[in-house]
């Protein structure tokens, strides 16, 4: 029988590779597997807020991610109808620009870092089942691309395998605080579009346009609409896509029309917003496997980094002698407490129909430079949603308007 690992990580993207790297850097024996032969593209907003980039900086990986060629973003424009918030957040941990790297550029950096730290990496390997003894997860059964089956054991198995997590399914992890998704999204990539920074623009009739630069001189352009309009939209994606752009942001629509679309349209109807029970005897979940929210606020990857770091710390405590169950319980409690504000804001705004109160706040912020920087600092992770939306702070902003 093979010697047990300290941890086996299922999933090697932006949650799995960091948790594997951080555990391996502490000297633990780690195996990370992924069914995909990376690098490979995947559905993503690509966007990394300052708090996500701060984690890369702390891990010594930010310069390598910058070197992939994703342009620095130093201007953000967020709008609802005629209320336009334009500017940029104050520096967060010294980070003065954001990035939106393609996953084919970002994920290999993370995986190489895990391998360089000493983690064993196996790609093209699928999880077939978990090894469970006396109610405790003790390891995994894996199948390679050629059909070979192998068992590996570990002190803890980590599911970092996305919203449709096989690990979560195998342990029967339930969901809570579930909010049904409101919208669908289509996106693609253009060349020849001027770099105007980050745009998230909500128009009337519950539709949104997002646009920002990414690798290879390409611009990602996305549109979002409510799910009831999906059947009609997909009958003529190209026409409807450009129609939404023209209705919401005519100036940007003209630039997109003048550019060249260089990849196919990708359409997604996202799963529910949810938290999952993310720890149990011998197992834990991280990233979208344990906590998923609408892509509207683009916090998925940055949250994955933050929670990978938190989980690695708690597992390391368990491996050092603290009761592992206590450590993993603390991980989930901390994650949930620290994300509630962002979760509520995301689910509130992602139906693209702001309440009159929120519309009024948008208009008040749009004409107030300090409030704009504060709002964009909340988006970037510099201050919490609870602090920004505190009654006293909102009262100050509204009074100034």
From TrEMBL:
Transmembrane segments: none annotated. InterPro entries: FAD-bd, FAD/NAD-bd_sf, Geranylgeranyl_reductase. It holds the Pfam family FAD_binding_3. It comes from the Bacteria. Residues 6-345 form the FAD-binding domain. This is 2-polyprenyl-6-methoxyphenol hydroxylase-like FAD-dependent oxidoreductase. It comes from Pseudonocardia parietis.
